[in-house]
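== Sequence entry ==
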Amino acid sequence: MPRDVEPRLLRAFLAVAEELHFTRAAARLYVAQQALSRDVRRLEQALGAPLFVRTTRAVELTPDGERLLPLARGVLRAHEELAAAFAAGAPRPLLVDLNTDGPGTARSVLDRARELAPDCELMARFESGLTHAAAEIAAGRLDVSFGYADGLAPALRARLARTPVRYEPLAVLLPEGHALAALDSVPLEALRGETVYTGAGNPRTVEWTGLARELFAGRGIASAPPAPVAVGKEEFRRVMAKTGCPVLATVGFVDMPGCVKRPLTAPVPLSPLSMVWRKGSSHPGIDALRRAAAELGAGQGWLEVPPDSWLPALTPGPDGG
């Protein structure tokens, strides 16, 4: 066993272990696939153990690869922390996905984090769906996002760290002429027989569609079939007017022309909103976002669950670190 292992070799191993695909791992590291394969072989030779089982169809970790995975993450995290501690100037910009461009929980957390860490450049992005944003985080193209993390595929969720932010009440967007638009709030029972748009067929919002499916089960509420995604307020208004279809949203969702937003009640459905980032990532902006979420959550009761409420079967787990 060598006393020293180059961090580059560990990065190559980690990329393949997380992607389970040499081509994707090479693209993630911006290196040629041959160079990546060579580094993995060098690491296996240095450790004296095979780390992957390779076939024409799949790449899997060996038991030694599984044993190395948390150790490699720890070593690389220590290298990142060491570099950050002695780096000159400000840290790199942090890319923070808010899902949509408008007010809401994620925007509030970002605004407060900017106050807590004025020297950090926290750049907003709008990826529209945690399923897509989480894949971008895992691939290193995005840093932080917010959403229903338990609705993600287990393999993707396992690559993310997360912390609960808020149990966010849900609402329904209704065309202005809809019969339920006259109500101040809409009981779930009042949606019986309605067809509600939940992003079905949109690959970016699989977690949201799954949450809606669980909420609607046994209540006589149908999910609208897949439809082209409306981008922009004008397109949204046009589609709402054309289809007359209610849309499931959160109470903080941006107001849209041509429709009204009404909170859902009896029970109040809650979406467990988490902040997620890639496991092993270290950045003062992430620390500021976590402090901001904790501060706002404590001050505004974001993690309190009202007695007359509904939660999906899975709820956010503890911080993955």
Observations:
- The chain has a mean pLDDT of 88.
- The longest strand covers residues 160-175.
- The chain has ten helices and 13 strands.
